[in-house]
Amino acid sequence: MARTELRPVVKLRSTAGTGYTYVTRKNRRNDPDRLVLRKYDPLARRHVGFREER
Question: What is the tally of structural domains in the chain?
Answer without folding.
Answer: 1
